[in-house]
Amino acid sequence: LRMYYYKGAIYRNRHDEESAMAAFVKGLDEGKLSNDNLTRARMLFAQGIIYRSIFDFESHNKCMREAANLFKLGGKESSWFNSHRRLFYGYFAQSDSVNAFKELKYIESIVDTAQNLNWLNEYYEILVTYRSDYERDSVANTILEYTYKVPHRNVEWLSVAAAYCSIKDYKSAYDAVEM
What we know:
Number of strands: 0
Number of helices: 10
Order of helices and strands: HHHHHHHHHH
Helix content: over 70%
Structural class: mainly alpha
Strand content: under 5%
């Protein structure tokens, strides 16, 4: 199983997505009986990225959902969170507001219990992305909440500026860049 994963990774590094996908598919097929959940998760995650690059969001989302489950079984919390983050963006790219919102709420529950500052930053980026399209009026409140909850030195000020730009508050965007 690992041989196919590394073979696929080498192909991806060479920008040969077709050969990478072939290696991942063959590895997942031949490794069905393997109990190496982390390698399976990594392969599914990599497949999902390839699917997203060719705009096959259904397959992307399926891979990310399966990868997240396997990463959780393997105790790889950061990869588990990252799979959910990518799953949100897959739904968002499909304009699937219902599933994007469900994933947003799930990510919010993860962040509330994890006490991980990086995840908190990423959650607010996801929240602003969602609200920029679906709840434009609440973006400013989200930014204020974010800058209140996250220590000043850890705030992603360029993301804050981008959020202000999304609601056409260019003065606040400029002020955020100046921080």
